[in-house]
């Protein structure tokens, strides 16, 4: 395991302090590990994005809207799904961090 020393702008330092005070992460290492895992996942997702397929899918949605085939969004369900995915990613990062911790 490698150690890094970083300098954060005041607003990020305040955010880290608040997150730790709210007991959302055990320590700074867990928070940074989670954040880096998220960035890694996002970069991997971006690398696999087929822009032409994405454009076609968007056009399908636009065409459906034009035909009046849209259903109302269930924001509560969307929020719940997002919270669930966030919790799963946090647990995975936590488990990954503990698996890599020196004994």
Characterise the protein shown here.
This protein has 103 residues and is mainly alpha-helical. It has one domain. Helix content is 72%, strand content 0%. The chain contains four helices and no strands. Helix 2 (28-47) packs across helix 4. The chain is elongated, with a radius of gyration of 19 Å. The chain starts with 9 loop residues before the first helix and ends with a helix. The mean pLDDT is 89.
Number of helices: 4
Topology order in helix (H) and strand (E) letters: HHHH
Question: What portion of the residues fall into strands of 2 or more residues?
Answer: under 5%
Largest sheet: none
Structural class: mainly alpha
Number of strands: 0
* Uncertain spans: none
Proportion in helices? over 70%
Mean pLDDT: 89
- The number of domains is 1
Termini separation (Å)?
A: 12 Å
Shape: elongated
**Rg, please?**
19 Å
How do you describe this structure in short?
The protein is mostly helical and about 100 residues long. It contains four helices and no strands.
